[in-house]
Amino acid sequence: MDVKQLSPRLSVSPQIAAADVATLAAQGFKSIIVNRPDGEGADQPNFAEIKAAADTVGLATVYAPIASGIAPSSDSVAAFARAMAELPGPVLAYCRSGARSTLLFKLASDGQTPARAAAHDIVIVGGGTAGIAVAASLLARRSNLDIAIIEPADEHFYQPGWTMVGGGVFDVASTRRAEADLIPAGVKRIKAAVASFDPADHSVILADGGKIAYKKLIVAPGLTLNWSAIEGLEESLGQNGVTSNYRYDLAPYTWDLVQKFKGGKALFTQPGMPIKCAGAPQKAIYLSCDHWLRQGDLKNIAVEFLNAGPVLFGVPDYVPALMEYIRKYNVALSFGHNLFKIDGPAKTAWFKRANADGSSEIVERKFDMIHVVPPQIAPDFIRSSPLANAGGWVDVDPATLRHKSLADIYSLGDAMGATNAKTMAAARKQAPVVAENVLKDMALGVGKADAIYDGYGSCPLTVERGKIVLAEFGYGGKRNPSFPKWLIDDLKPSRAAWALKAHLLPSVYWQGMLKGREWMAKPSFAK
Ligand code: FAD
Question: pTM of the prediction?
Answer without folding.
Answer: 0.86
